[in-house]
Structures are given as structure tokens and as C-alpha cells.
Amino acid sequence: MCRFKWCNFEQLEQAAPKSFYTCLEVSKYTQTQTQTLLMDKTWIKLPRVTSEYQSGCEQFIEFAFRNKSRDNMILCPCNFCVNTCWLDRTAIRDHIICNGFTKEYTNWVFHGENISIPQNMSSSNVQNEPSEGDHIDSMLHDAFGMHPIGTESEFGVNDYDEIPDEEVRKFYRLCEDGDKELYPGCKKFTKLSFLLRLMQLKCMGGISNKVFEQLLELIKTALPDLDTLPNSFYEADKIVKDLGLGYKEIHACPNDCMLYRKEFANDTTCHVCGASRYKVIKRKKSVGRCKLKLGKKIPAKVLRYFPLKSRLQRLFMSSKTAANMRWHKDGRTKDGLLRHPADSLAWKDFDLNHPQFSSDSRNVKLGLASDGFNPYGMMVPYSIWPVVLIPYNLPPWLCMKSSNFILSMIIPGKTSPGNNIDVYLQPLIDELNELWTDGVRTYDASKGEMFQLHAALLWTISDFPGYASLSGYMTKGKHGCPDCAGNTHSEYLKYNHKTVYRGHRRFLERTHRFRQDARTFDGTQEFREAPKLLTGSDVLEQVRHLNVTFGKLQPDLCERGKKRDLLSNWTKKSIFFELPYWETNLLRHNLDPMHIEGHFAESLVYTFLGMAKSKDNTKSRLDLVAMGVGKELQAVDKEGKTYLPPACFTLSPEEKVLLCEFLGSVKFPDGYASNISSRVRVKEKKILSLKTHDWHILLQYLLPLVIRKITPTIVSRPIIEISNFFRELCSKVLRVSDLKDLEKRVALTLCQLERIFPPSFFDIMIHLPIHLATEAKIAGPVHFRWMYPPERFQMILKSYVRNMTRPEGSIAKGYLIEETLTFCSRYLTGVDTKLNRLRRNDDGNELQQHECIFPQAGRPLGGVTSVNLDYTSYAQAHRHVLFNCGSLDYYIE
Fold it and tell me: pTM of the predicted model, to two decimals?
């Protein structure tokens, strides 16, 4: 964090540029006296329901609007706004009554009293005035953390540490650009504000660097006096990047064995595999006396790490976001329903185990999401793994937005890191440990005070293969379910050559009739109990003997697990256990409902249509013969040919056509889903590859409608039940009692599916829904823990790739620009940004100032038509006017 410390005020005044005076203007005016109205302020500390408190509120409002009103608004002094928001008279009264008056605010300097700042008030509160111009001064002070604390006499001796000279020069440079007129006489824009707007347009519109330079050239040609703008994107980027936070480049072994940091920072070869740190460049031999000049050594692999501390600090240093970082404590509705991770059992248990951490609501709880993507599409095999952090302190409508995601690192490589991801996570784990034990000194712009910021990691989010990489649990084979672990019920199919996971009767009640039913299941009765989730202590006990050496050249971890013949699939002790609190977390790694739901829908539809990915084929029927179950569906040899008896879920050609015609005729509101009909081939009775969200819509809303008509009840009923299960699970508001009911229902539904479909249908992704309701009961709503937002963020990162030979560098540079402009856009007015842009289809309706009992939603299309109402419709309209028009209340009474 950047902070100043000078010997005296006069020295600071001489050294600072003109624009820096804004930061000190409150302190400088301590000698200026204004007319003081002596008022009794003891009512501030009284209960809000008393008449004295309400009378005092009215006196304050009259005094403030008489002395400091601007556009009929004043700064709100309630506990939530803390003099940062300008509101009208009615809103001020509501806020003071509902939220309470800031008790420390006894000298009303922002509302017309003597200009002297109390200890806990910040100058940034004064700067956020409603105006037509951009708030560049506020932005610079928030970006560099230069906020005065205390009065003038205390400013020179406050707790600000000295900052590097380079940071001071950056601040002064930006201040000068923020004061410099765009052209002589321009009052609307400064050089910095106009440049930020241009860069914002570039990022919002996806303008290339070349087109941006052509735009600069066009503007300077049309306006010859405009000589303040840079000549190229490179020069513009140099100005704007001073507002950014930067990243570190850490060299890595090309075989993922180690990072060249700490004691290995100066090594030139890997101490594990002996590989060179730098690329070996083959050069032609020199001719005669000519010698080739050796350039800078090129590292073989580079990890780009974005420090976390400075990014968390900026969330609190910015007056635009600081208050929202306490929403989980101050703004959350606490009625027992699950709307946010803060309502969950995992969050509350963490607070109970670590009371010192939870004592300050500003301490940040994070989620970690990671997955790989290919910047080249399908052309070249490549896999970049970004690691993203999600701050859960923010409100639900903000924390899952890509603009609030924190990119932690970019892991390079032509292949995924797999278990070696722990090597690359070392810098992040070290910083998380520092944030847990020591914290970092941070300025809170909403309260105007310094505090020690701490942070903790709650859980990870990934798809199922990523689950194996992050947790160290091999999600394949006999014990492939990480929640069932060593108690996983699995079977190996002789002809399909894969492991399937059935045995869901264990999750039913002990007295359920299905437990005794051997004939319609696998020929056995079920008396076992449902497996219990492993605690952190259980996991540590199972992995304590593992000593893994990372690197691609090491023996495959899966093969080593097979040789040991372990009862569990643990292949390593995850690096997350280096966090002192990780062992006590109730849920450490999340199953991803997005991919599970998509795979479930894909298996159902492809099996119904008998496509190539169908789970019902000749091999599946031969497995029934080998297992000695499902005699009515077993393959039969007739005249040298294998005959497959039709199953209850087998569709006739006419029914397949009906299913495809229905899916091909569906239309959705714009933005609700993609055009599924374009992926349907009715004549071929096929559905081409759909996106995961398409399967989400198809399973929850479309499939139940058509499946009732083309399949018998024994098939349609469990399909409709599984659809209802996912739809209720994905609700934004959950009840613990409903989740307990979902646990029972999904177990019964999977048992019913076992009676219908062959064993080959039940791969690991069909089994995992049995655990989703349990995880939601522990960690809260699934839309805070699924992969939809992180994968959308990956698409944004992918769009930053401009140099195809250096994709990771392009992504890092593009993200820094985007991160900087997202921060700056909070201080720009009248410009379209990611934070305030209109919806895709905006009808431009403004709030109606007059009473209207027929509010218009949307805008009319086409011409005006006249309609003659029948008697019934006329009577209904007349009755609606009588009961809903407030102007008629006097006559009705």
C-alpha cells in the first residue's frame, strides 16, 4: 500500500502538485470558521425508536439542507453510507431512521459546521460530489492509497510509511495529466480523463491496437491543437498502466518439477530432473571471423503470478467498493434461508473455529476456481490453466461478476499440469499464509481508518478432472467417487471395459422396500449404511505416508497407486493442507453441478435417440449376460446374429422424430438460451453437440414436456423427478429442510433409474448427483460454486490473445489493462462500462413520475390498433381502476 510521510505541512505543500491539494483541502481549512449552530447532539446515541431521536433527525435535516444542500441533496451520515452518498430529503430521513446515525460523526463538517475533520472521517468522502465531470482526483487518491488521517496538526506525524520514489513519481505524473486541459480552454475533459475514456471504448468494443492508433491519428488530424494525446497505443498504455498493479514472472522447470524462487532463484538447472532453466537455441556456426551475438536468455517456462495483497487492498482503498466488502455482515438478510455462502453451515463453522478472524467483518473469505482452456481452439493441442479467486464478502449480485474476479496466476503448458499444479500454487499458498497470520495494513475508505486485513480460502471450484488435480484424489477406477472414497460401490464391465457406480439403495431409509428387492436390481439385498463424508483429519490420516516428487518425468501417480493397492485413490497430500485452517473446513473441494447436470442430460438424450454415445448398445446387453441380471434385456443370438430385445426406454423411429421435431421447434426469449433448434437434425434423428448451458435448459425445462408423451410412466416419472431435482437445487434461495428432502428424493430417483437402464448407463457422473444436495446443505446455493462464471471469465481471457506465439503474455497484459480500466470506470460519469451498461435489450423506459395504474413494461412495436372490449373485459378493467387508483380512495370511502 502506498502512503506518505513528511516532516511538516509546509514541505508537503511545496512538493505536491496542484492536483494533490484536493487530498489536503479538508486539513488546510481547519483555520476557516463558518457560522456554527449550537445544537444538542446527544440524540445521536439514543435508541432510534424514541421521539427524541426522531426529533433530532428532523433538526439535523433542516440544518444540513439549509447549509450544504447541492441540487436538493446532501451527504448521507447513516452507518451504511458514512457520508459517501448524496441523497434527497426523503431518502436521508429513511436511512438515518433505519440504519442509524454515525455515532462518531459529532462535528458536522460535511453539513455546514466548523471545518475540522474527526479522526475517522476521510477526505474521499468530500470528493464524491455529484457533478457532470469525472472524479479523477478521487480515483488517484484511492488508487495510491493517499488519504489524510486526522487534522492538520496530526497529518505530518500519522502512521503513513514512506513509499518508493517511483510510486511518488507515478502519482505526480498522473496528477499532472489529471490537471492538464485536453486543449486550451477545455473545461469538460483533462488529458487523463479523455485518455481513460478512449481506452474504455477500446476494451468495451474489442478494438485492436492498430485501429486504436488509427483513431488517435484521426483525432489529432481533425484537431491540430490537440497535442496532449499520445501518438500510439504503446504510449497510451504506459500512461494508464501506472494505475495498475502489475504481476511477477516466475521461471519454472519445463517438466513442472519446481519453480525458480526462494533458495532456487539463481539456479540454472532443475534440481529434480536436471533440465535447463532456459531454452536451448540452435545456432549456425559462425563463418570466418563473424561471430553471432548472444541475446537475452529465454526461459523455458514462465509462471505469471498476480500478487493478491495489493488487489485485496484496492477493494478497500476504493471508496466505490469498500462498503460492499462488509455486506456479508451488515447488509445480509438473516432469516435462516440460504442466499449467500455467508448463510451456509461451512461459513458459520469457519467463524466458530476461528473467532479472531471473524471478529472483523472486513476480513476476506475467498473461493478458488481453476480449469484449462485452449487458446488455439482445436487446431493445436495446448492447455492454459488460469487460477481465479472469488471474494465472497461482496453481495450476491456482485461477487460472481467477472469484473470482481481476481486473476491469481496463469499456468502455461502444452498439456494440463495435473497433479503438478501444486508446484505452481506455491506462491499463492505462501501469500495466503501471510494474509492469515500477519495480514496486511490496509486503508478502509468507507470508514476512514487503517486496519489489518486478513484473508482465508474456503474451498475450490473445478470440473471433475480438475477436482483430481486440486485435491489429489484420483477420480477414476474402483474408488472413483471422492465423497464415498473407500466405500464407493463400483463394478467393472467385461465388455464395455469401464467401471460403473450403482448401489444407490444404501442412501435410502433402512425400512425402504427397495432394500429387500433383489430381483429388479442386481440380485442382492442391500443392508449397508450410506458412506459418510471424509473430514480433513481423515484425509490427512490417509495421505500421511505419501511422499510425492512432482514432475512429468516421474512415474505416473495413478500407476504408483495401483502398485500400492491402496484402499483409497489418494495420490498426494494437497498443497492446500499447508494452510493452517484447511483441515477444519467442512467442504474443501466442490463437485461442479454444471458439468454433472450437462453429462446427465447428454446421457439420457443420446440413449433415447440411440446415437453413437448411447449407453445402451450391444456391449451393454452382453454385460447383462456376463453379470446374470436383466434377463429380459440380455442379447440373444438368432441365426448367427445378435438380437437386442427392445427396452422400455427404447424409442420407435416415429417417437425419435417427434422428440427431434419438438426440440427443433422450441424458441426462447432473447438471451435466455442459445438456438437449440439449429443443432437438431430431424431427418437423421440426431442432435449435434450442445453447450453445457443448452443441456441445462433441455433437462430442466424441455425434456420433461416431451418425455411424458413418448415413454411409459415407469420411464417418464424418474426423468421428471431428476429434472425437478436439478431445478430446485439451482434455486437462488434454498431451505435446509428442502435440501434434506432432496437428498431422499434423488436417492429414490437413482434407484428407479437402476431398475430401468443397463449398468453401463451409470458412470461416475450419473452417480455424483447423490452428493449435490448434501454439499448445498453445507456450502449454500450452487450458483456460487459452479463453473459457469469462471468459464465465462476464461472466454474473456481467451479474447486477450493477440500474439499467438505468446498466448500467456497476451493474456497477462490484456488482463492488466482490463483490471485497471474496470477500477477507473467506477469514477467515470456518462460512459458505458461493464459496471453500468444497459441490458442487451433495453427498452429505454424511465421511471414514471405520475401515478399510473397500467405501468408499461417494454416499448410498443408496430402501429396503434383499436380494440372493442366485450362486457366482461370492460367490467374487469373498470373494477381494476376502482381498486388500484389512489385518487379514487376519497370517493370509495
Answer: 0.79
